[in-house]
Amino acid sequence: MKKKHYLTMIAVIMTTGLSMAQAQNPECMTNLSIYAEHAKVKNYDAAYEPWKMVYESCPDINKANFSYGEKILAHKIDNSTGADKDGYIQELLSLYDNSGKYFPKNYPTAVTEIDKALLLYDNKMASDDQLFEMLDKAFKEDRDNFKNPKALYLYFSALVNLHDSGKKDLQDVFDTYDDVTEKVEEENKKLTDVVTKLLPKDSANTITSKEKRMLRVASTNSESYGKVGASIDSKLGALADCDNLIPLYEKSYEEKKGDVTWVKRAVGRMFSKECTDDPMFRKLFEAQLALDPSADAYMYGGVLKQKSGDNKGAIADFNKAVELETDSYKKSNILYKIATIVRRSSKSQARSYALKAIDANAANGKAYLLIANLYAGSANDCGTTAFEKRAIYWKAADMARKAGRVDPSLSGHASQTAASYNAKAPTKEMIFSSGMAGKTITFSCWVGGSVTVPNL
Fold first, then answer.
1. Running DSSP on this structure, what letter comes out for residue 427?
2. What is the pTM for the complete model shown?
3. Does the N terminus or the C terminus of the chain have fewer Cβ atoms within 10 A?
């Protein structure tokens, strides 16, 4: 029995990275072995007392004190009430603080602050002030490790609530919105890079089991970021409409016109909210052009020229914007924005820019969705019969589905869009009565290409 117990302790030392020099406290080592064995089989009640002894007496003996300790205390919280539950919550908050103290490489600032904030939020123990303070600290001190989608939303949501109660300025809301959405885009880009790399292998059935898991994890996490991004936009809501933006920027312009970050964000927000008819948009655009004559600036210049009727000049500016941007991801976003601008005047030109956006970044799902929308909007222009006109929706639905595959953050919206287009395509009854099952329909309009009618 003693030999078996000794071997168990040695196993814990080896599997958790504990050095023999750290194993000088026999009582701590014995209890570490005991609670680790209980925790492995999720017998957290039995693990609690030996874990508590090791944690309080030898907190730095091994990081298992914190990894297992979190699971043990979470179990206790879930299975207790009243004062006992509050006590376990306080223990877990203290554990999060000490995890960063004793093992900072394993538990960076953002991770511990987020864990604390989410624990308080989930147990309805945190005010908006507390949530924002904790998450603001985490984001500003350790942005690289601030990756939790739920925490990103709560960070922004708490701030909007504070603004609604008169405690935060609208400019604070916009600044944090930009910071948070940029972070969401950064993290999602890492995930879609994995998806882009592995999708061809998955389609060709040459993907390994390890790569399959990587693809599944990346797709799931990307989808989570997509949902959070949509929730953040929804939370911002009407605060970012033109009626709020214009007076805010008019008020701050003289003070901020030399701040390139403020100017770029302001003109970008007015563009995204379609406030481009207001003179303030031109003022901000000219300020950006003077401070940073970058690709974005030429794109906005193209918008103004287009509005004044100078379509030739607008296209020249758009092409200049594309030429100036060297980063393929940013180039793709610019091409997509140009596609959204020119769609009103030319669907085929809009598709051309959208396809260039996809060439620059194969994971640009928004470009696929735009093309799907362009196709759907051309139903009455493509085909001579009602059946042929409605068949264009199959092509639109296919494009929408591609959007969700290349960028899983858009999968929810893409699936809904594809379903709505499929509902407008010919029904089974129409296919049967027309005798078109399995046949090919070619489109002679600007859309071009063809679709194969589904077999019944």
1. P
2. 0.86
3. N
